[in-house]
């Protein structure tokens, strides 16, 4: 009886990728050798791209800080112009020419800015110039609180006496004297301020006057219909989000400032409109702005009233109104459409405040909205996958192969979905 030959199982041939992974020798000029060379080249380019991106990311903040005289008014003008785009489009829908509509928007902004300066800056300058003459009143108001901390009071008084008794040493070398008044400070810094302000106004005007044509050219310049629609959607989302945020927050802040000004008027606080304007302006800076406004109102109250408890009424009124606004009014009006992560707000305020100071802190949230909108449309890059070749597409391909092997598919057969 003849035994039937036993059929030995022949292993499936290795794919070129598996041969490369196992380190099998490859013949020069083969397809696998060319693929391996291309793989090394791609990884080298990926590493160089990552290094260049890290260098650009680290260098950009210092470039923005050193070039603040140019970048800060430019950025502020672009944010203001984007916020004014809905007004421009409303005028253009009523057949107003673009140049005239842009000029109207600029004039409205200048009128609002002049009213704010007249209501806040000028009275605040006159009020806080009285601070040296009100030191004794402030000390009298603080004495009950200092009595509770006698040790701290003795230390502070000793330090003040030492500072007052220490003679002022004249510098050996000639130095430029600092400005002794607001007028002198404005006179020395006026050329730079005027140039930056005029530059910003021109940016706003030319941006608005050419907005319609620039937007149309940007959309129609795409090579595909999907690209044009994506570009139009990103532009519209940026305009809608920034204008909605600034418009809504402006109305809320003006209402808050008006309520605080009315309450301070009944208390007897001098210049209530000035304090209401300060509260409204600082409320643009989340978290930190109300704290600064409370501190300024506490100083103003101690400069005005002789009783410490009456002097603490202005900051108490401001904090009470702010708590109602922040916990009831703003969430009700703004809703979830403009909800931003508090951590991202703090990081943005810290970053832009370090780069451009107070102006950067005021621009922090609008810039955060613009960056989040653009990144949300463009997508976040997979840097790790780009560098180490374990990105989403490779993982999905491997998952499909693994599912195919688990389902009993042959290596050469397509994966059943």
Can you put this structure into words, describing what you see?
The protein has 417 residues and is an all-alpha fold. It is 77% helix and 0% strand. It contains 17 helices and no strands. α9 packs antiparallel against α10. The chain is globular, with a radius of gyration of 32 Å. The two termini are 48 Å apart. The C terminus is likely disordered.
Write the layout of secondary structure elements.
Elements (H helix, E strand, L loop, with lengths): L15 H7 L8 H36 L1 H26 L4 H31 L6 H14 L1 H16 L16 H28 L1 H10 L4 H43 L4 H11 L5 H17 L3 H4 L1 H22 L7 H15 L1 H21 L4 H6 L3 H15 L11
Helix pairs in contact: 2-3, 2-14, 3-4, 3-7, 3-9, 3-15, 4-7, 4-10, 5-11, 8-9, 9-10, 9-13, 9-15, 10-11, 11-13, 14-15
Shape: globular
Considering DSSP H and I runs of 4 or more, what fraction of the residues is helical?
A: over 70%
Q: Please give the number of β-strands.
A: 0
Structural class by sheet pairing and helices: mainly alpha
Strand content: under 5%
Oligomer: single chain
Name a few traits of the molecule.
mainly alpha; 417 residues; 77% helix; disordered C terminus
In a nutshell, what does this entry contain?
By secondary structure, the chain is mainly α.
